[in-house]
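Example S7 (structure tokens).
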């Protein structure tokens, strides 16, 4: 904060004691609320729903999504027998078969039992071997409670055991990268002064095998006000290099490469994303970028040869340019082409760009309709399949299919198909556009029973997020099908599910996102409310039969629906939410989100932040005749990203104001996901669905 900025006043808060997450007083309050909620909801109907959802989550015929490394295909799997999960691998012949046989590398349930710690698998990073050699080592990330803090341990893929005397890093919010077989780049908590205000690593050290973190030399560091520092080693043969990133905020960063023992910055504005691949450097601007007399639109993708760009040649090739209806979701390289995953009015389109032909693009014919698909390379370094890609296709009524294709070859061949989890043939999918307060057309998807009556009596569940440039796209969910669509009201009506593509998300690229940043945050909430009103206008439902759900930033959305639009909804489920926007930067990782919401310590920022801080909006009088809708707030004690305290305080404040029908439930572990295994996920989902369904149909 500069000296010219005034400090915002600190509102009085009687509930700060709930911010002491593990204090006996706070946990006693949590246990009491859990008991109340469970006594009200957990009856035979609830347990039947929980069991039905768990059956979906534990189903043996789910697609075991895999990552190819060398000759093997790696997968992490949870089911009823292995609730914590198995890390395993198999061959391509086995993977493509109907009933693959897997080699179990690590049994997380057995590990937890042996070590007395409830380990949650958080990923593996394999060491790239020399050409033609097998993969032999991996770094495994294990969370003790499902939170973001992990222990990193070195695993031997031959002996299937921990490496004796190998790398073993203590629990922290750690990121690591192999730097050859005997050294790591480690970004972690090294003690006082080594974390940013966002609670992430400020420095990166190089840890040699046999060395200690305390003695490891510092390699890279960033300002304490920035989000985090990271260094990764790119082991691609012929393009080996170390890459440093200074993540300033969510939308600004600087990228460096290590040259002759020093860091050389890639010279672009901080809001231009930088992506390195072999000889290429790709750029993705967040705002209009003027370079060499040309202005490149936000959301475009540009390419240059890295060495030429470093030497001062600023000639850029436009690989993708967005339109009013299209945005770039992601991209990935095969051995010779660049795959582009594009949204066209929130429906998937795939392009292949040819670097050898000036990145000319060709649209791939992969399907149509209101569906989503994603293309990713199988293994661009394996000459036997360097042009192969995975195609993952899904839709609200289309169970996920995994196919494999080859660029320039025949149509992709289906490898795995998920089973139907509910009677999806009885429903239809439609896309509509609501008009928001400022005239913007906002898309949303509606999944409803075929032949649904438009008489305003249908039970509807709206889901939204609207932040951090994250897009919500069509996908198959057996839990939504069973938890909402297949349910029946006493008069025989089935559920309707609505997915809202509001501003703040990435559905139409950076401009769609930036339209709801900071002082414009209200546009996301106006969009969601506009969709709710459109459902009423179209006689799909009425407010009393309209439920809404969202988590994390979507939980902040729900908090603003409760306090800003109480008459629009019959019930709200608010999960792992941000709600106290005056103190959010001081709680867990909140400081990292200032670019999204603003800085509440700055008086000028607080003036607009307080208008979307649900915790403080509770102090504003409701319009005459209005009442808050029934609300369930839920969180997890071990969530070290948002934390449970904001949900706790919101529920406690509403209860203190004697607002009726306010409920709270907190999982004692599970991290920001709210669940660390399928059983916890089923409980969390069933609690939310049961609460909402009962409130809008009773």
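Recovered sequence:
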């Amino acid at each position: 904060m500069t000296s010219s900025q005034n400090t915002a006043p600190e509102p009085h808060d009687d509930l700060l004691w709930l911010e002491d997450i593990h204090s006996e007083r706070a946990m006693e309050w949590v246990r009491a609320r859990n008991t109340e909620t469970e006594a009200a909801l957990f009856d035979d109907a609830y347990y039947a729903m929980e069991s039905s959802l768990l059956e979906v989550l534990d189903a043996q015929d789910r697609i075991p999504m895999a990552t190819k490394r060398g000759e093997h295909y790696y997968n992490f799997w949870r089911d009823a027998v292995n609730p914590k999960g198995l890390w395993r691998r198999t061959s391509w012949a086995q993977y493509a078969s109907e009933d693959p046989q897997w080699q179990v590398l690590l049994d997380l349930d057995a590990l937890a039992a042996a070590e007395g710690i409830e380990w949650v698998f958080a990923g593996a990073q394999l060491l790239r071997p020399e050409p033609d050699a097998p993969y032999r080592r991996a770094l495994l990330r294990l969370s003790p409670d499902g939170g973001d803090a992990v222990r990193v341990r070195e695993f031997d893929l031959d002996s299937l055991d921990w490496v004796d005397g190998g790398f073993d890093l203590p629990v922290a919010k750690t990121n690591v990268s192999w730097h050859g077989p005997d050294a790591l780049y480690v970004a972690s908590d090294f003690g006082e002064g080594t974390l940013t205000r966002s609670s992430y690593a400020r420095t990166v050290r190089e840890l040699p095998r046999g060395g200690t973190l305390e003695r490891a030399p510092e390699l890279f560091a960033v300002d304490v006000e920035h989000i985090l520092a990271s260094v990764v080693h790119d082991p691609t043969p012929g393009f080996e290099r170390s890459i440093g990133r200074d993540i300033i905020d969510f939308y600004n960063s600087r990228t460096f490469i290590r040259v002759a023992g020093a860091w050389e910055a890639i010279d672009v504005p901080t809001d231009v994303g930088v992506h390195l691949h072999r000889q290429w450097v790709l750029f993705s601007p967040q705002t209009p970028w003027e370079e060499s007399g040309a202005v490149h639109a936000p959301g475009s993708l540009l390419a240059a040869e890295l060495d030429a760009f470093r030497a001062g040649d600023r000639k850029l090739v436009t690989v993708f340019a967005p339109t009013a209806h299209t945005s770039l979701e992601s991209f990935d390289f095969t051995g010779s082409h660049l795959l582009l995953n594009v949204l066209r009015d929130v429906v998937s389109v795939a392009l292949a760009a040819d670097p050898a032909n000036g990145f000319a693009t060709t649209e791939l014919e992969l399907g149509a309709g209101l569906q989503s698909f994603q293309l990713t390379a199988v293994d661009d370094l394996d000459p036997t399949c360097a042009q192969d890609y995975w195609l993952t296709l899904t839709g609200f009524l289309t169970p996920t299919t995994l196919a494999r294709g080859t660029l320039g070859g025949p149509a992709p061949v289906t490898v795995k198909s998920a089973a139907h989890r509910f009677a999806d043939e009885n429903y239809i999918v439609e896309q509509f556009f609501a008009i928001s307060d400022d005239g913007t057309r906002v898309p949303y998807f509606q999944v409803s029973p075929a032949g649904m009556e438009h008489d305003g009596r249908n039970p509807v569940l709206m889901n939204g997020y609207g932040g951090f440039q994250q897009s919500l796209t069509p996908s198959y969910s057996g839990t939504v099908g069973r938890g909402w669509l297949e349910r029946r009201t006493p008069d025989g009506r089935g559920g309707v599910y609505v997915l809202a593509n509001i501003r703040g998300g990435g559905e139409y690229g950076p401009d769609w996102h930036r339209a709801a940043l900071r002082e414009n945050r209200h546009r996301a909430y106006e969009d969601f409310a506009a969709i709710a009103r459109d459902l009423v206008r179209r006689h799909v439902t009425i407010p009393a039969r309209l439920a809404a759900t969202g988590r994390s930033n979507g939980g902040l959305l729900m908090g603003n629906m409760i306090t800003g639009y109480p008459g629009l909804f019959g019930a709200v489920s608010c999960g792992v939410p941000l709600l106290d926007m005056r103190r959010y930067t001081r709680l867990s990782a909140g400081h990292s989100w200032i670019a999204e919401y603003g800085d509440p310590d700055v008086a000028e920022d607080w003036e607009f932040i307080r208008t979307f801080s649900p915790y403080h909006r509770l102090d504003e009088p409701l319009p005459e005749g209005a009442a808050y809708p029934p609300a369930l707030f839920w969180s997890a004690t071990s969530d070290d990203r948002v934390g449970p305290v904001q949900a706790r305080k919101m529920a406690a404040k509403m209860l203190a104001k004697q607002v009726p029908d306010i409920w709270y439930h907190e999982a004692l572990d599970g991290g920001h996901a709210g669940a660390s295994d399928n059983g916890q996920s089923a409980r969390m989902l069933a609690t939310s669905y049961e609460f909402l369904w009962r409130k809008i149909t009773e």
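Notes on this example. The CA atoms of residues 544 and 570 lie 4 Å apart.
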